[in-house]
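Action item from last meeting closed. Structure (120 res):
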């Protein structure tokens, strides 16, 4: 699998400071910010600072430090947004997963009772 990163994607522009964002948390390897079209009271996007297009790309090629920094950011987002009753974490991936922005991002969605992801 070849991953081609487009550095003109909207999250690359956010990382370069060309587009504003409402930051929830940031460390050396990750940035977390509120989704511009929230689907629930909590809807935060966690993104790596490196040029990874998708979850599988990040899982294959990111360094252990980048992966640890990213997961620490997820933990901090969960702490800061107070989702102890639960949340959903989603990584839409490529065409079948209906991914709109080709920079890896994890949606953290919660703050309310969510519906089942699949019909029972
Ligand atoms: P995807 O469909 O790629 O998984 O999700 C992309 C997400 O990025 C969507 O939920 C969309 O609302 C969000 N989004 C798109 N453009 C911007 C933006 O400029 N700022 C922020 N904060 N979120 C954005």
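Sequence:
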């Amino acid at each position: 699998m070849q991953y081609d990163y487009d550095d003109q994607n909207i999250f690359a522009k956010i990382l370069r400071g060309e587009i504003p964002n409402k930051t929830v948390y940031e460390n050396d390897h990750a940035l977390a910010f509120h989704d511009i079209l929230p689907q629930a009271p909590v809807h935060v996007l966690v993104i790596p600072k490196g040029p990874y297009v998708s979850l599988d790309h990040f899982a294959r090629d990111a360094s252990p430090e980048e992966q640890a920094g990213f997961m620490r950011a997820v933990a901090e987002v969960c702490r800061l947004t107070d989702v102890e009753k639960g949340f959903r974490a989603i990584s839409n991936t490529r065409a079948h997963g209906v991914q709109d922005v080709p920079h890896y991002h994890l949606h953290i969605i919660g703050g309310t009772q969510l519906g089942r992801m699949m019909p029972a």
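Note appended to the action item: The beta strands are 23-26, 30-34, 42-48, 87-90, 106-110.
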